[in-house]
Structures are given as structure tokens and as C-alpha cells.
Amino acid sequence: MSAIHLVERTDNVRKIDKLNNEWESGSWPITEAVAQKLVGGMIYLHRGKQQPSHFGGEIISYRIEQSGAEAGLVVFKLRADADCKGVKTDRKGWTKDQKIFWDVPTSA
Question: Which pLDDT tens digits describe the chain residue by residue (108 residues)?
């Protein structure tokens, strides 16, 4: 399973479906190809690279902003998961406030 850790400083997260616990998080400078590969993986939002995650969940889809100052940026749709809160990641491997893991082993 893939996972992305993002530094999220602006609380750009909003609930879109209360019944299904679905949220949107964006706008992220990620290519559409990368966003597509992350669908089905996990997203972890951090206030800083060395801080544990404060929010996250399973990425169920994405969209590309079509207009305005954020045109071309990725918005992830996710199903929030309490297990994604408080997750830490090593300081190595961060690039521009993001860190991606491909094929992370899942816990049983």
C-alpha cells in the first residue's frame, strides 16, 4: 500500500460527506500520475515534518483544481481514519513538504 505524508499548515481540509466520513484535502502540487497511483493508499497530514500527523485516512479519489489561483493542483478525497492520527515519520526523504512511500507493508 502506498502512503503520502504532507505538511499541512493552513487547515485546508473540509468534510464533504458526514455519513461516510469523507473529506477533501488540497490543494497539493502533485502530478496527476502520482495522485492516481496514490488512490487506495493512505494520506497523513502533519503541521510540520517532525510533528506527528494530526489527520489522515484512505485516499478514495482525487480531482484537479480547474480554476483560480490553485488551478492544476491536486485535491484528495479521503475517508478519515483515527489510526492515521499521531503517526510519525523519519526526517529523511521529505521533498517540498511531502514524503511518499510506495508499497508500504500493511499491518495485520
Answer: 899 999 998 888 999 999 999 999 988 999 999 999 999 999 999 999 999 999 999 999 999 999 999 999 999 999 999 999 999 998 888 998 999 999 766 554
Name the residue among 89, 108, 106, 107 with its Cα closest to residue 2.
106
In a domain, 106, yes or no: no
pTM for this entry: 0.90
- 89 inside domain: yes
Q: How many residues does the chain have?
A: 108
Domain limits for position 22: 3-99
Residue 108 lies in a domain: no
